[in-house]
Design a protein that fits this description.
Largest sheet of chain A: 3 strands, mixed
Shape of chain A: globular
Strand order of the largest sheet of chain B: 3-6-12-7
Oligomer: heterodimer
Structural class of chain A: mainly alpha
Number of domains of chain B: 2
Largest sheet of chain B: 4 strands, antiparallel
Organism (chain B): SAR86 cluster bacterium
Keywords (chain B): Membrane, Transmembrane, Transmembrane helix
CATH topology of the largest domain in chain B: paralog of FGE (formylglycine-generating enzyme)
Number of strands of chain A: 7
Number of strands of chain B: 12
GO molecular function, one term (chain B): formylglycine-generating oxidase activity
Pfam family, one (chain B): FGE-sulfatase
CATH class of the largest domain in chain B: Alpha Beta
Helix content of chain B: 25-40%
Strand order of the largest sheet of chain A: 1-2-3
Strand content of chain B: 5-15%
Number of helices of chain A: 26
Distance between the termini of chain A: 81 Å
Largest interface: A-B, 58 and 49 residues
Strand content of chain A: under 5%
Structural class of chain B: alpha+beta
Shape of chain B: elongated
Protein name (chain B): Sulfatase-modifying factor enzyme-like domain-containing protein
Number of domains of chain A: 3
CATH superfamily of the largest domain in chain B: paralog of FGE (formylglycine-generating enzyme)
């Protein structure tokens, strides 16, 4: 079979049959059949066999696909119809796919579960290709076989995986994504096109369901959002791979403007309140990833420079607002970057209409007139590079961040700065979850004292118990006497967790370096002495 | 001509095929299926997550419904069917704490009172201590109300076996729970109720309370006297026995299994003698290590003496470690 690769969208609708070779016979069914069988074979790898529900998820998905094929085959024969596919390779698919794979490789090197997840991604790809093909054939259309499902699956898996016991939901999520692409459409510029970015549609819908049913813990969403930063210099890495996508697909205005909006809003908030808006950085790494790879689908974003600018700004505003809204609702804030995309996709026509209603040529062309001899995207990229370099120079991307420092939040809380106490509790709860015993004792003490938060003896006991099991003596004594609040400075192991600045635990750092780093983070006891931290006891 | 039209293009000579072809499934059908899939996901996830929780609760409550156990009250959290629900009063007064190597040749160095004294005299107020170690049935009655802990105690353990594989905070949590139950129940014996009302608290024993209860005021090496005996204690053996399997009328205060069967957690941090309950909050920078007493079924004679002091991390679960409860005034 000859393969013809087309380099731009125009070739998609090419009437020239020489551009692509079509396989159109009953033999075409061999392809989805082979993929379904491959899915079954994949279920026998040890990674999948380790969990019976996971294995059954694979078999269930394959069974559905096989039954669907049998139905289509039966119908085709009865009606003397042909099902066909042609090969069509589009750069926006394979370039985006390669960029995503490079991210998986880099991230997985520092967070092992990513590599362990590779078999499951492969299974999702097999499922996605088969599902997409069968869906297209059910609509009596010819299927364009290329790399289309690859960026969709890789994009979904950059944000949400269901745990093994619930993995069948991952297949349902993919199915919903493709059905959204097929069925939820509108007429844009005289052409029928899908409204939603398929991966963002599935992610957004499932995020809503997970929030509504309070079942976030069935997924790896929280872990994914927080482990990206285990890879050193992740912002620089995302920036660099983002440049590739920007160069090929002219999405610089969307990604750049959303980043600039978020940086700007964070800076404004920080200037106004004295505390950072996001806990771990100026823009959380997962949001930075989202603005490069989740909202930049050209089919579901505006096409004019001004429209792209508005789209990017709205994404920044949306994430910024949702972060607070989700936090206020007590929901995980990592959903912020996912929930806003479908809403933005829905606003694309309104944005296009707004832009068209502007009759000022100067305004419409503000981003491109005369720049780089008309190669406006390169001009946009140059500006973006300067902005990112400036942010990095100011320490707003990779590296130490003010929000990483617990003493900073303690001070801010004591000074009654906006929401600082809530953030401190949130941060301590996270570190307690990471097995930092000191943090468990601190948060237990706050719930017992009832000064910066409402007193809650049950929660307090739960945190003291955890701190005690982690061998923090003060926490054990607090468990014994409900009238007592004993505090103690972090132990060495605690510091190795507390000072990681979003990166990996500092298990190999020497004690001397550890205490120096603690001192840099404003831990006064570490500055005073590198070896004999003094206790600080309070009794109520 | 659109792609879909091309795919269904009639073949030459096939005049009627176009009208004979069924219509492609419409968007309405597809949208309906998609919406149904989303609703299914929402309902399924809600149901499944609730089911998992209720399964946990059912598992723990069914494990608490353990029927009647001879010698234990199934309507009183499986406490012993004894006048004081299995609590034995230990009178106030002094006792000799620590070991005298001249009398006890198996004594360890950490049992020495100080550099110039072998033993110390400690005076403690009266208190109540459990006749037996806390059993699996008793602990299950607690976990039945705390489903989060239900998985931590194996459901197939016989009800009258001492509970093991519990952490130090879990033992304390059980004690706090029992305190609430005893304080609020009208069936609690008046003597205990009055003691609780006067400030008594259910907890695990301090090591002084434990040692006094084990060896009495006469400083014996083993709870039953100074001569080793496997008649009164389960040690050097292959398995744990149900509580009270080695009755010991000769033992101080008639308590059973103080030696052997399972190590018993105390609320005292492991630190050098002389014993002083007021110095527990010192050395906070050190890792927590708690005293456990009495030795277990796998230990040899040297570890089941009344004065022996073991240490355990508060987060450790082990099948040789359990606990018993006391009611004492802090």
């Amino acid at each position: 079979m000859a393969i013809s690769a087309s380099s731009n969208n125009s070739s998609r609708n090419s009437k020239n049959s020489a551009d692509k070779q079509t396989r159109s016979s009953m033999a075409a069914f061999k392809f989805p059949f082979a993929l379904s069988i491959a899915l079954i074979i994949l279920s026998f790898v040890p990674r999948v066999q380790g969990n019976p529900i996971l294995a059954w998820s694979f078999w269930g998905a394959a069974a559905v696909l096989l039954m669907w094929q049998a139905y289509l085959l039966f119908n085709s024969r009865n009606n003397n119809e042909e099902r066909a596919f042609s090969i069509l390779l589009r750069p926006q698919h394979y370039i985006q796919g390669m960029v995503q794979i490079s991210l998986y490789v880099y991230w997985g090197y520092y967070w092992r579960p990513v590599y362990d997840h590779a078999w499951l991604i492969l299974a999702q790809l097999l499922f996605a290709y088969t599902f997409d093909m069968l869906l297209t054939w059910s609509r009596r259309r010819e299927y364009s076989l290329g790399f289309g499902p690859v960026p969709i699956i890789l994009s979904i898996n950059l944000f949400l995986w269901f745990r093994d016991d619930w993995f069948y939901m991952q297949f349902v999520m993919i199915a919903v994504g493709f059905m959204g692409k097929e069925y939820v459409r509108w007429n844009r510029d005289g052409r029928s096109s899908h409204i939603f970015n398929p991966s963002a549609f599935a992610l957004g819908l499932f995020s809503l369901v997970l929030i509504a049913t309070n079942t976030t813990d069935l997924t790896w969403g929280q872990e994914i959002a927080s482990t990206l930063t285990l890879a050193p210099n992740i912002y620089t890495f995302l920036f660099l791979i983002g440049l590739v996508v920007m160069y090929f697909f002219s999405i610089t205005l969307v990604a750049g403007m959303s980043a600039v909006t978020l940086f700007g809003l964070s800076a404004l908030y920080s200037a106004g309140t004295g505390v950072p808006y996001f806990l771990d950085s100026e823009i959380p790494a997962a949001v930075f990833l989202g603005l490069h790879l989740l909202i930049t689908d050209p089919s579901t974003s505006p096409r004019t420079p001004l429209g792209k600018t508005i789209f990017g700004v709205l994404y920044g505003l949306g994430v910024f607002a949702l972060y607070t809204l989700l936090g206020a609702m007590g929901e995980p804030t990592f959903y912020d970057k996912l929930l806003v995309v479908p809403l933005l996709n829905l606003s694309v026509i309104a944005i296009d209409r707004t832009v068209r209603s502007i009759h000022s040529a100067a305004l419409l062309n503000v981003w491109k007139e005369g720049w780089f001899g008309g190669r406006s995207n390169l001009a946009h990229m140059s500006i973006w590079i300067v902005i990112f370099a400036s942010m990095s120079f100011l320490g707003k991307t990779d590296g130490k961040h003010q929000g990483d420092s617990l003493p900073f939040w303690e001070q801010a809380c004591a000074s009654d700065l906006s929401n600082a106490c809530g953030r401190m509790l949130q941060l301590e709860a996270t570190y307690c979850g990471d097995n930092a015993a000191w943090a468990c004792n601190e948060i237990g003490a706050h719930y017992r004292e009832g000064i910066i938060t409402e007193s809650n003896e049950e929660l307090s006991m739960a945190y003291f118990s955890r701190g005690c099991e982690l061998k923090f003596r003060a926490a054990c004594l607090n468990l014994l006497d409900t009238e007592l609040v004993l505090r103690e400075v972090p132990h060495e192991l605690d510091l190795r967790l507390l000072l990681r600045e979003g990166g990996q635990n500092l298990m190999t750092l020497s004690e001397q370096e550890l205490f120096e780093r603690a001192c840099e983070h404003d831990w006064a006891f570490a500055c005073a002495s590198t070896k004999s931290p003094e206790s600080n006891r309070t009794q109520i | 001509m659109s792609k879909s039209q091309r795919a269904a293009e009639p073949k030459p000579g096939d005049q009627c095929i176009d009208s004979a072809l069924p219509q492609a499934p419409g968007r309405a059908l597809g949208l309906t299926i998609m919406c149904l899939a989303i609703v299914f996901v929402a309902v399924w996830m809600t149901v499944q997550s609730r089911q998992q929780l209720s399964q946990k609760i059912t598992a723990s409550s069914s494990s608490s419904q353990q029927g009647t156990m001879t010698g234990f009250l199934d309507n009183a959290w499986f406490l012993p069917d004894e006048p004081l629900l299995g609590f034995v009063r230990i009178p106030s007064g002094p006792f000799a704490m620590g070991s005298n190597p001249a009398l006890d040749r198996l004594a360890y160095e950490n049992e020495r009172w100080s550099s110039n004294r072998r033993q110390g005299s400690v005076e403690i107020d009266d208190f109540y201590i459990g006749l037996f170690e806390v059993t699996a049935a008793q602990f299950r009655a607690f976990t039945a109300e705390h489903p989060d802990l239900a998985n931590e105690v194996a459901a197939d353990i016989q009800g009258d076996m001492p509970v093991t594989n519990i952490t130090w905070p879990e033992a304390l949590a059980y004690a706090r729970w029992l305190q609430r139950k005893l304080a609020s129940s009208a069936d609690t014996p008046a003597e205990l109720r009055n003691y609780l009302a006067a400030g008594g608290q259910v907890s695990i024993p301090s090591e002084a309370e434990w040692e006094k209860a084990a060896r009495g005021a006469d400083g014996r090496i083993f709870p039953w006297g100074n001569t080793p005996s496997t008649e009164f204690a389960n040690y050097g053996a292959r398995s744990i026995l149900p509580v009270g399997s080695k009755p010991c009328a000769e033992c101080a205060f008639g308590l059973q299994d103080m030696s052997g069967n399972v190590w018993e957690l105390t609320r005292s941090p492991l630190q050098a003698y002389p014993y002083n309950p007021n110095d527990d909050a010192e050395n906070l920078s050190e890792d927590a290590l708690w005293v456990m007493r009495g030795g277990s079924f796998v230990d040899s004679l040297g570890n089941v003496r009344a004065a022996v002091r073991g240490g355990v991390d508060p987060g450790v679960r082990n099948n040789t470690i359990g606990f018993r409860v006391v009611i004492s005034k802090p």
